[in-house]
Amino acid sequence: MGRSIHKLETTAHQKNIRSIGNLLKNGYEMHDTAFIDDQWHNEYIMEKILDNR
């Protein structure tokens, strides 16, 4: 799970999002990162988060 969160943080950085904390405040649940294990999933989740802002 820690690895998935690291990858999400990396993707957030690439998308110019300040921190994973901002993602969590926007309704992204920490436990949902458990299934994210490659870049495609990261991109998909990030797009989903950005669409919901």
From TrEMBL:
<protein>
    <submittedName>
        <fullName>Uncharacterized protein</fullName>
    </submittedName>
</protein>
<dbReference type="InterPro" id="IPR016181">
    <property type="entry name" value="Acyl_CoA_acyltransferase"/>
</dbReference>
